[in-house]
Amino acid sequence: MTIDAPDAKPGMAAGVPPQGIAPIFAALDLGTNNCRLLIARPHRDGFRVIEAFSRIVRLGEGLSVSGQLSDAAMARTIDALKICSEKMARRGVAVARAVATEACRRAGNGAEFLHEVKIATGIQLDIISTAEEARLALTGCAPLLEPPHREAIVFDIGGGSTEILWAKLPGGGRTEVIDWISLPYGVVNLTERFGPGDHDSGSYERMIEEVSAVLRPFEEKHRLSEKLKSGAVQVLGTSGTVTTLAGVLLGLPRYERRHVDGCWLDFPTVIEQSHKLAAQSVPERALHPCIGEERADLVVAGCAILESLYRFWPAQRLRVADRGVREGVLVELMRQSRQNGNRNRGRR
Fold it and tell me: Most buried among 123, 216, 258, 300, using CB within 10 Å?
């Protein structure tokens, strides 16, 4: 749902900016593991971020077993959404969209939770399809897809699912989706099934095999591994898994987006680092400042998904994106706003 100034809901304040000043937009992405907010103002061909917020809420905790969102998970998430609502109100957001993904798609009580969110925060969440989630992620990452590549494999490893797109890059920053697939595996549900992952028990390899079984038909259909050999296909990953691994490999003393977003990594080295993390205990992983306690038990499941992708598509280089659905929502909101403005001017 897009919230414009005349119809702004409580907790999502909107106002008409002074003449000549661009309105403020907001995008909120509620996933299985994270709640992310981005507030921005249009700037040239893109936007300038005013404020960002991200919190691990683990909304999907226990969902793979119970089929329901737990009371504790919903309470944590509503607390984070209240902060988002306050930030949007304080910034005078004029246009906003809030989307929810896999946890709310799967949960038997997802609709009830959205109703509670609306009452508690004023935020109206849209549960989007896996197709829309994949498309928004691609839109958000498009600036990082560059010549001379003519095609791209883009993947988003989430908490409850993993979206993979094969896209054409016709030039001029444009992207065209050729095909996509949503895998029913993310870092939360894989960890709940297999544990925090390690080599000794074999759980790491079992996670890879399970993900690979679902991914194989997509590869057999498109033979992307053959296309990779031409060098014309770029591989890009967006998720906490790839950004965390980038922070580790870059040796950052603390996670900093400006060093990670858009960086290129040697893909075989990423897989080597994944093996090292799988060989560590959860407390050992937690010691790394780019992992910490909140991600220490989940990161290896993400590594397993990533290695499954690598085994099918062994690219030499991987580009990392600390951007995705939120940015895609913002781009589309601003594009729609410009189109509406042009239509209104045309009626005068």
Answer: 300
